UniProtKB/TrEMBL annotation:
The gene is trpF. It comes from the Bacteria. Pfam families: PRAI (PF00697). This is N-(5'-phosphoribosyl)anthranilate isomerase. It catalyses: N-(5-phospho-beta-D-ribosyl)anthranilate = 1-(2-carboxyphenylamino)-1-deoxy-D-ribulose 5-phosphate. Pathway: Amino-acid biosynthesis; L-tryptophan biosynthesis; L-tryptophan from chorismate: step 3/5. It is an enzyme of class 5 (isomerase). It comes from Caldicellulosiruptor saccharolyticus (strain ATCC 43494 / DSM 8903 / Tp8T 6331).
C-alpha cells in the first residue's frame, strides 16, 4: 500500500514523516496555500529520510518550469494535474522521472479518460477537484485499472476509501489542524494502514 502525505511545507512536517515513514511526501509547487518555494523545498528534501520518495506537485505551470524544478531538486516523482500532452509526459520519463498522473474526477467521462495514462504514467491518481462536492468513492468504484485514491481522506473515513482496494492513498487536508500538518492525525492514518503493508513503491 502506497501512502502519500501531501502538502509538506515545514521542517516539522518532514520530522513527522521521518518518524512515521509514509511511502512518499508531496511538495506543492502549484498555486496553493500549501505552495513551497524551490529553496524551501530543497531544505526540506535534504532533511527527509532517504527511504521516503519525493513528489513534486504541478498544476497549470509551463513545461520548462516543471522540468527545471524537478531537475534541480532531483525529484523521484512528478505529479501532474493539468492536461499535459502525452509527448511531455513521455519526455519527462525519458529524463528519468517517475510520473503520477492526477486526474481530477467529476464524472464517469473523467474515469474513462484516465485510461489513456495507464501505459504511460507510473501511477494514476484519482483525485477530487478542490472545493467540489464530488462523490469520488462512488465514481472510483467504476475504474477497471489500478489507481491511487485521494480527495477528502481523513483518519475517520479512510476505511471507505480502502474498500476500493486502491494501490495507495494520498492525504493532505485530512491530516491537518488549522491548516498545519498534525502528527496525531498522520499517526492514526499510518496505524490504520499497518495491516496493508505501507512501504516500498510497487509497480514503480
Ligand atoms: O493540495 C493542494 O493544495 C493542491 C493544489 C493544487 C494542485 C494539487 C494539490 N494537491 C494535490 C494532492 O496530491 C492532494 O494530496 C490531494 O488533492 C488530496 O487532498 P485532500 O483532499 O486535501 O486530502
Amino acid at each position: 500500500m502506497i501512502v502519500k502525505f501531501c502538502g509538506i511545507r515545514r521542517e516539522e512536517d518532514v520530522e513527522y514523516c521521518n518518524i512515521l515513514r509514509p511511502t512518499m511526501i508531496g511538495l506543492i509547487f502549484a498555486n496553493s496555500p500549501r505552495k513551497v518555494e524551490k529553496d524551501v523545498a530543497k531544505r526540506l528534501l535534504a532533511m527527509k529520510n532517504p527511504s521516503i520518495k519525493s513528489v513534486g506537485v504541478f498544476k497549470n505551470q509551463n513545461y520548462s518550469e516543471v522540468l527545471s524544478i524537478s531537475k534541480d531538486l532531483q525529484l523521484d516523482f512528478i505529479q501532474l494535474h493539468s492536461s499535459e500532452s502525452i509527448e511531455f509526459i513521455t519526455y519527462l520519463k525519458s529524463q528519468g522521472f517517475k510520473i503520477i498522473k492526477a486526474v481530477e474526477v467529476e464524472n464517469m467521462d473523467d474515469i474513462e479518460r484516465s485510461k489513456i495514462y495507464k501505459d504511460i504514467a507510473d501511477f494514476i491518481l484519482l483525485d477530487r477537484p478542490k472545493g467540489k462536492d464530488v462523490d469520488i468513492i462512488k465514481l472510483a468504484k467504476n475504474a477497471d485499472f489500478d489507481f491511487i485514491i485521494a480527495g477528502g481522506i481523513t483518519p475517520e473515513n479512510i476505511e471507505k476509501y480502502l474498500a476500493l482496494n486502491p494501490l495507495g492513498v494520498d492525504v493532505s487536508s485530512g491530516i491537518e489542524t488549522n491548516g498545519f500538518k498534525d502528527f496525531n492525525k498522520m499517526k492514526t492514518i499510518m496505524e490504520k494502514l499497518t495491516k496493508c503493508k505501507v512501504g516500498e513503491v510497487k509497480n514503480g
